[in-house]
């Protein structure tokens, strides 16, 4: 499902790559070759060394120290035994964060924060089982590919947005000194930049429109990873971990927009689903 909702970002990036290639080379066949090469470039995310590099760029990660690995490795092995999975297929990392968290990336990266390493063994195993669930269902691989294929489109959006901000800043300077004509010209120019971007690549309009649906599909992935961990026998332990998180949240209700764009479901909903599945 996430693949479908990520399609506009992929097509938008393809258009951006084609336009850039057309600016550099006039030959139509060269543009097609560049576009095909870019589509095939997603295969590099399957290379272990590239995946590790991208994970480092996306997150502030490092390899575990000897002491951390001594604690982490046996717990990971226990989870993989419960799941009948090959533990050596995956790479363990530590994220430089004081928050209690863990994540799966690409096809083999599993990371925990330094604070997560302080959890009791069974609780940490439950979190690792959840992340293994992401890998077994392919969520983490799809997320990395989506990030990769959205880069050109995101770059184009950033470039035009930055240009618009600069133009509007100039307009505010004109307005401050009493030049309403200059301010109006700056506003019209920024709108022209936005209209030009949409005209060249109308697929970009779908990216923000589909963002809530993409976030919804990611929340479904979290529910599935929870269910997978519960299937390995970690349901009660995961409920205990989530209950601790829920208590730390102080029952603060998130605004509707935040809930719609959140990549993770509400902790209370995750607990409710886990308890209902027993």
TrEMBL record:
Alphabetical list of InterPro entries matching this protein: HtpX_protease, Peptidase_M48
Cellular localisation: Cell membrane
Domain of life: Bacteria
Peptidase M48 domain segment(s): 72-276
Gene Ontology CC: one annotated term: plasma membrane
One Pfam family recorded for the sequence: Peptidase_M48
Keywords: Cell membrane, Hydrolase, Membrane, Metal-binding, Metalloprotease, Protease, Transmembrane, Transmembrane helix, Zinc
Main location: membrane
Name of the protein described by the UniProt record: STE24 endopeptidase
Provenance organism: Actinokineospora terrae
High-level lineage: Bacteria, Bacillati, Actinomycetota, Actinomycetes, Pseudonocardiales
